[in-house]
Design goal:
Radius of gyration: 40 Å
CATH superfamily of the largest domain: Histidine kinase-like ATPase, C-terminal domain
Strand content: 5-15%
Largest sheet: 5 strands, mixed
Structural class: alpha+beta
């Protein structure tokens, strides 16, 4: 707009002078602040300096003082200081040469420069605050999205870890019930169906309460069914496999003092997932075994099931949500999880580390 105004004055006067050229260059420099403030600031300083030295115009100093607002709003502090010093130097030069600066004009330019500086700094402060607010809002939105994802994962875990396990048992025994050879076997299936249905119903009711009211306590983890004890858990899970018609051996110490409650819970979750996969994907397994292997620096859960002849290893998939989440949880605590076929069997191996002080304590107890 200023360039157009300058062109209009040139056309109306019918001549193009050096001052008009400097004015148009100055206005172009102002427009360059939208592209590259540092380049624009130095362009304006050079143009104004040339104008003052070669034309002795106080108007160039005044324009330079006004431009200080843009410099203060967009440039680094050292550029603002350089611009201010140039305004002061050119003002002193004009006042000393006594060319076009009116009496007292030096103070007027100083006042305009001060106002421009304060206006630029105020704009810079507002822009900075707005940037902080935008960044804070983005951070809050990201946190809320993370919380929502965590809540979705927690609900999915509850559905998979508890309810899906019970429904798998119900489905298996419901299918097997008409084929049971004797009354005792049917009684076992009916009892398993009834107990699993009650547990699934309780889990669903607790989960619904949790979803409706955030103040409600989360549903009890399925690990708590076994009092958080690995030995008790794998003994019960071994019985489930036997009830499903799969010969199963169980081997575990009754006292794992070196395991933390978190480690025991993780191993129980993996054991339940492995047993559920056997019942769901490989119900014709020839035999199975669940073992706890104690080592000085780690404890390993080993679940194996020998596949029936002609059954592909993919019958007990390693790509499901349960094993994926188990691997994720174990890695967060320094453990590891491996699952895959091995010599005609499907093997799930979960390992959790044992803290050094816990190992030493367990060794002392064994020595006593």
């Amino acid at each position: 707009m200023l360039v157009f105004i300058a062109v209009g004055f040139i056309i109306s006067s019918g001549r193009f002078t050096r001052s008009d050229l400097l004015a148009m260059a100055f206005y172009a420099g102002l427009a360059a602040f939208a592209w590259h403030p540092l380049t624009a600031a130095f362009a304006i300083m050079i143009i104004s300096g040339v104008g003052v030295i070669f034309t002795g115009s106080g108007g160039d100093v005044l324009e330079l003082a006004i431009a200080l607002s843009l410099v203060a709003a967009t440039c680094a502090p050292w550029v603002v200081i350089t611009h201010s010093l140039l305004v002061a130097t050119l003002t002193a030069y004009i006042a000393a040469t006594g060319t076009t600066l009116a009496e007292g004009g030096m103070f007027g330019i100083a006042g305009i420069a001060a106002i421009a500086l304060l206006a630029g700094l105020a704009f810079r402060l507002l822009a900075t605050r707005e940037g902080i607010f935008i960044a804070e809002r983005a951070r809050v939105e990201q946190d809320l999205e993370l919380i929502a994802r965590e809540e979705q994962e927690r609900i999915a875990d509850e559905l998979h870890d508890g309810i899906a396990h019970d429904l798998t048992l119900i489905l298996f025994h419901a299918r097997a019930l008409p084929k049971q050879p004797d009354k005792d076997a049917r009684t076992v299936s009916l009892t398993t169906i009834e107990d699993s249905a009650e547990r699934a119903l309780g889990s669903i009711q607790s989960l619904l309460s949790l979803m409706r009211d955030t103040q409600t306590e989360a549903p009890a983890s399925r690990a708590l069914r076994y009092n958080g004890q690995v030995a008790e858990a794998i003994a019960t899970l071994g019985d489930l496999l036997k009830d499903a018609g799969i010969p199963t051996t169980v081997s575990a110490s009754d006292d794992n003092q070196c395991l933390s409650p978190t480690a025991e819970r993780l191993l129980i979750e993996i054991a339940i997932e492995a047993v559920t996969n056997i019942i769901k994907h490989a119900p014709t397994s020839q035999f199975a075994s669940i073992r706890i292997l104690d080592r000085p620096d780690s404890v390993t859960l080993l679940v194996e099931n020998a596949l029936a002849p002609g059954v592909a290893g993919g019958a007990a998939t390693s790509g499901g949500r349960g094993l994926w989440r188990g691997r994720q949880r174990l890695s967060q605590h320094g453990g590891s999880l491996e699952a895959g076929p091995s010599q005609g069997a499907w093997v799930v191996r979960a390992t959790v580390p044992v803290p050094a002080d816990s190992s030493a304590k367990a060794s002392d107890i064994a020595t006593e």
